[in-house]
Amino acid sequence: MRRTTKKKALAVAAALLAGWILLFTLSLSSVPDKPEISWRADRLVNQLSWIDRGEFLPLNVSYQVLAGSVPSQPRFLTVGISSVQRKKGQYLKSTLDSIFSQSSAEESADMVVVVLIADFDQRWRLRIVEEIQTSFPSQLSTGQLQLVHVQQEYYPPLTGLKRNFNDAADRVSFRSKQNIDYAFLVHYTAALGQYYLQLEDDVGAAKNFLSKIRQRIAEQDAKKQPAWACLEFSKLGYIGKLYKSHDLPLLARFLFLFYQEMPCDWLMTRFHDLLAQKGPIAFRPSLFQHTGTFSSFQGTHNKLTDKDFEEDFANPEADVFSNMSVYQKHSAQMAWAPGGDFFWARSPARGDYVTAVLKTPAVLTDVAIETGDAGKDVLISAEVELGRDVVAVAGKKERSCGRFVSVGRMERHKFEAEDLDKTHDFASSCLRIRVTAPQSDWVIIKRIRVAAKPESKTSL
C-alpha cells in the first residue's frame, strides 16, 4: 500500500516537473527577437479640470511611451488615435500620412498626435513602432507625434460581461475594450493641448482641417448659446469628435465606468447630454472620411463612408437665387454650400434659372455641376453661363448680372469644365444655370462646385 502511494506521488511530481519545463520552454519561445524599448511616463495634469487638480476619482493606470516625446508646451490641438492589430488590412500609417500631409507646417507645429498602440501582442507592437519610426522621424523628434501603450494588467475584466442589446459575447468584449482604450487615451492627453480631436486609425483628412476647426470653434463661441461639450466634424462613429481638453478627465472616467454598457459613440452622446449640450453640433462638409476596407472587429468588410466629406471644398462666398418652385426647404443655396443637402424644385420651365452671385468677383478656372439622384429628377437641358456687372432684379429681392456669356451646355445631366480662365479670363460675378427646355419631372441640383484663381483681379 505504501509503495503504491509513493509511486503515485513520484508520478505526480514528474508530471508537474514536465509541465513546468514545457511552460518554461513556451515562455522562452514567445520572447520577441528584440526587446520592446519603452519608458514609463507620468501623464501631465490639466489644471483647468477639477478632477485632475484635486486628484479626485483616480484612474489606476501607467503608460509606456514607445516612441516620441511630450511636447515642451501645450499645443492648440491634440489628435487622439487608438490602434489595434487587424485580421485584414492596416491603415495607421496612411492615416498619419493624411493628417500630416494635409496640414501646413504652421498647423503641424500647433498639433500633437498621440497614438495608443492598444494591442497586447508585443511582436506586433514592435513592428508597428518600427514602421512609424521609419516613416515619421521628424514628427517624433519634434513632439508632433507620440506612441504610447498601456499593459493589460491595468484593464478591467473584458470577458463575462453584460450582453446588452443582445450582442454576441465577442462583440461585447471588443467594444468594451475599445471604451477602455479611449478612456486611457483621453486621460493621457488631457493636458497636451487646448482641444482634443478623436479619430480612428483608418481615416483620411481634409486639407487644412486644423484651420477649419479653429474657425468653427470661433464661430461657435461667438454665438449666444450655452457652452458646447462636443463639436462633430464627421457623422460616422467616433471620428472627428472635438472636445475641450479640460473635459477629458471627466470623459475618461465616464468611459471607464460604463465601459461594458454600450459602444463608445453611444456613450459619447450621453456624455454631452450630461454636460447640458442640447443635441449634436455637427458641421459640414465633414473634415474626415472613413477609408478602411476591413473592420478592426473580426476583419469583416466595412463599406462605411461619409457622404458629407469633401477633401478640398473651394467655393467662394455667394448668394444663390432661383425662380423655380422650391420643394420644402431644399433651397438653391444648398447646392452651393458644402455638405449633403441639395436644391430640389418642381418641374422647371424654359428660361428658369439658378444664379450664384459671388460676393467678390473672381476668375473661375473650374466648374462642376451634378444633378439628379440615382438617375431620377435630373436636369435634362440647360446652358451654363458666366456673368458680369451685378444688378438688382426688378420686383424681386435678388440680384443677377447684366451681361452673361455661355461656357457650355449640360451633358448627361451634369456639367464639367476645366481651365475656363484660358478662354474666359475675366472676373466673374455670377454663375448661372439657365433651363433651355421644359420638363415634367422635378429637378435636383446636388452640388455646384467651382474653383477660382488665387487672388483674382477684377477685369471688366
UniProtKB/TrEMBL annotation:
Source superkingdom: Eukaryota
GO terms of biological process kind: protein N-linked glycosylation
UniProt domain MGAT4 conserved region: residue ranges: 60-309
Molecular function via GO: acetylglucosaminyltransferase activity
Membrane-spanning residues: none
All residue ranges annotated as the MGAT4 A/B/C C-terminal domain in the record: 318-446
Pathway, per record: Protein modification; protein glycosylation
Family matches, as Pfam families: MGAT4_cons, MGAT4A_C
InterPro entries linked to this entry: Glyco_transf_54, MGAT4, MGAT4_A/B/C_C
Keyword set, alphabetical order: Glycosyltransferase, Transferase
Official protein name in the record: Zgc:101663
